[in-house]
């Protein structure tokens, strides 16, 4: 039924503009034109220069036929060009597909074919693998995209061109677009990002301009980020579009400090030289900083704030970062919700708690982002919320504007993910009395031993509390009596020594007997480029490999 408020009060260009993070670049170029935007080795760009370069790239891509619904695939490390594609491609209403730089040629070819890549932008460091991937794309899939090479000034190793265009020459040949407008419809796709594909082909997660805009704003609100942050790119920008931080930094007129190689020395040197005050990373990167030579931290006198996500952070990591004086915020999410979409909001009274209690509180997955409409823990069978008792386990679910459009060309998976009007994460958790969520495990990682559920994360937390343990992962091993028993894979800290028996005794002091690992294996732990442990590979090992010390 219409009302008086529906009459002669229509949307028009003056009062309604589709939400898109592209607008953040235009504003910073207008308002903060002279301020630093990008630092990369000897290269320095202001916001006016980044806007011009992005607008030249957009013009070049437009001349190659890129427009609404076109896919532009990039194979780039954290460089200025990776920043620029996050502004230029969405400005054309095209879709950005960022490739994981550690994938093999066959999987790269599969992904480029699946998203129907029209243009590919690749760093010359990845020439050999991209040459093979593009060959497979042509010969196996019949697709031949336009390829643009990026020769980064900071790359000193092997370089191989595979494209018909060179990035800088292409920018120089095109006048910048007068304006970077973004989409006519904020529901239009802004990116497609592929999940890991540990159980079959990867799924292409399609996100939209509205969600990217809102999550970029949420990042700033969640972290209470000030204007002009100096943000260090320790997180790969190919991972969930850098958790939307390419757009957050633009919104705040901050500085992107690019980092081509991630190691403790490079991170701490950049923090010292550029007065970095914000960075994001998986737990493994934070652990690198904890175990680094303390001398590498000399000269870092500013307050440094880190965001951790990508895996449940061990309590030992949170405690370790606190002892370094770094302020850590724990967030949680998935590719399907643009990266982080919940946060362990720190309440004022927590500061008065003991370090161990602060660690417990901060280690939870927390509550929904301010602009995410819903997050809770439900029984996936009945779609009812579990009691807030900290004991009853269910599945974490999200709903709201910070959720994907769906999976590309996979309607059955999309329908399953959104059953009951909520996005199903597959993560098992409890709801505590203050309604903060505490994850227990991925549904596939729960170990069921003799009918009892064992959280692999709980066992890993116990192992991480031993000073000799640098990295660990616990998975199920088939057992004829118990069905499954926990087996732990361990990487030791530099110079540390410990026996399996000592670690078992350590765990017995912290865990119920049935949760203690039955085997300890000292083996390298496979990880993704973003630091996530690849447990599916360890489960395969556990089925056949013998323990050794």
Question: Can you put this structure into words, describing what you see?
Answer:
The protein has 549 residues and is α/β, with parallel strands linked by helices. It folds into 3 domains: 64-209, Rossmann fold (3-Layer(aba) Sandwich), CATH 3.40.50; 262-442, 3-Layer(aba) Sandwich (Rossmann fold), CATH 3.40.50.12780; 447-544, ANL, C-terminal domain (GMP Synthetase, Chain A, domain 3, 2-Layer Sandwich). The chain is 31% helix and 24% strand. It has 17 helices and 27 strands. The strands form 6 sheets. Strands 2-1-11-10-12-13-14-15-16 form a 9-stranded mixed sheet, with helices on both faces. A hairpin with a 3-residue loop joins strand 25 (469-479) and strand 26. The chain is globular.
Largest sheet, described in full? 9 strands, mixed
Estimate the helix proportion, in percent. 25-40%
Strand content: 15-25%
Question: What CATH architecture of the largest domain would you give?
Answer: 3-Layer(aba) Sandwich
Q: Number of DSSP strands?
A: 27
Averaging pLDDT over every residue, what do you get?
Answer: 91
Radius of gyration: 24 Å
Intertermini distance:
74 Å
Examine the coordinates and then state which fold CATH places here, giving the name of the CATH topology of the largest domain. Answer: Rossmann fold
Q: What is the count of structural domains?
A: 3
Which CATH first-tier class of the largest domain would you pick? Alpha Beta
Superfamily (CATH H level) name of the largest domain: ANL, N-terminal domain
The count of helical stretches stands at: 17
Strand order of the largest sheet: 2-1-11-10-12-13-14-15-16
């Amino acid at each position: 039924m219409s009302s008086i408020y529906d009459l002669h009060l229509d949307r028009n260009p003056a009062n309604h503009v589709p939400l898109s993070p592209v607008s953040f670049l235009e504003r910073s170029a207008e308002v903060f034109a002279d301020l630093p935007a990008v630092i990369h080795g000897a290269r320095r760009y202001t916001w006016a220069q980044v806007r011009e370069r992005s607008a030249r790239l957009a013009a070049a891509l437009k001349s190659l036929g890129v427009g609404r619904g076109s896919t532009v695939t990039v194979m780039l490390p954290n460089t200025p060009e990776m920043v620029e594609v996050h502004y230029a491609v969405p400005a054309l209403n095209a879709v950005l597909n960022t490739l994981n730089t550690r994938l093999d040629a066959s999987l790269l070819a599969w992904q480029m074919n699946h998203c129907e890549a029209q243009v590919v932008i690749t760093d010359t460091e990845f020439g050999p693998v991209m040459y093979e991937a593009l060959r497979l794309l042509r010969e196996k899939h019949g697709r031949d995209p336009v390829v643009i090479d990026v020769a980064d000034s900071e790359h000193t190793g092997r370089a191989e061109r595979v494209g018909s265009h060179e990035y800088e020459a292409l920018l120089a040949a095109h006048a910048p677009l007068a304006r970077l407008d973004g989409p006519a419809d904020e529901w239009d796709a802004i990116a497609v990002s592929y999940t890991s594909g540990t159980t079959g082909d990867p799924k292409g997660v399609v996100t939209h301009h509205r969600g990217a805009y809102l999550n970029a704003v949420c990042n700033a609100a969640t972290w209470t980020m000030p204007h002009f942050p100096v943000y260090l790119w320790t997180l790969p920008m190919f991972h969930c579009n850098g958790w939307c931080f390419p757009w957050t930094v633009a919104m705040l007129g901050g500085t992107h400090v690019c980092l081509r190689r991630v190691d403790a020395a490079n991170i701490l040197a950049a923090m010292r030289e550029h007065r970095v005050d914000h960075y994001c990373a998986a737990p493994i990167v934070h652990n690198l900083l904890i175990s680094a030579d303390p001398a590498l931290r000399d000269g870092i006198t500013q307050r440094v704030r880190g965001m951790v996500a990508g895996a449940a952070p061990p309590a030992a990591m949170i405690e370790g970062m606190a002892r370094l004086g770094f302020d850590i915020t724990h967030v949680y999410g998935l590719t399907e919700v643009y990266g982080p979409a919940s946060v362990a909001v720190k309440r004022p009274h927590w500061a008065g708690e003991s370090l161990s209690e602060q660690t417990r509180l901060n280690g939870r997955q927390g509550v929904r982002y301010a602009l995410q409409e819903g997050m809770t823990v439900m029984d996936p069978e009945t779609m009812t919320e579990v009691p807030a008792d900290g004991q009853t386990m269910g599945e974490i679910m999200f709903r709201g504007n910070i959720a994907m459009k769906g999976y590309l060309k996979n309607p059955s998976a999309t329908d399953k993910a959104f059953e009951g009007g909520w996005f199903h994460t597959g993560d098992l958790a409890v709801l505590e009395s203050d309604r903060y969520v505490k994850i227990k495990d991925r549904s596939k990682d729960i170990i069921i031993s003799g009918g009892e559920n064992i959280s692999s994360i709980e066992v890993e937390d116990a192992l991480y509390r031993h000073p000799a343990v640098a990295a660990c992962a616990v998975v199920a091993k088939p057992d004829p009596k118990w069905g499954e028993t926990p087996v732990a894979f361990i990487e030791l800290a530099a110079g540390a020594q410990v026996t399996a028996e000592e670690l078992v005794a350590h765990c017995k002091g912290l865990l119920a007997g049935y949760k203690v690992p039955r085997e300890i294996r000292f083996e390298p732990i496979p990880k993704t480029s973003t630091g996530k442990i690849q447990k599916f590979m360890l489960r395969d090992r556990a089925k056949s490999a013998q323990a050794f010390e």
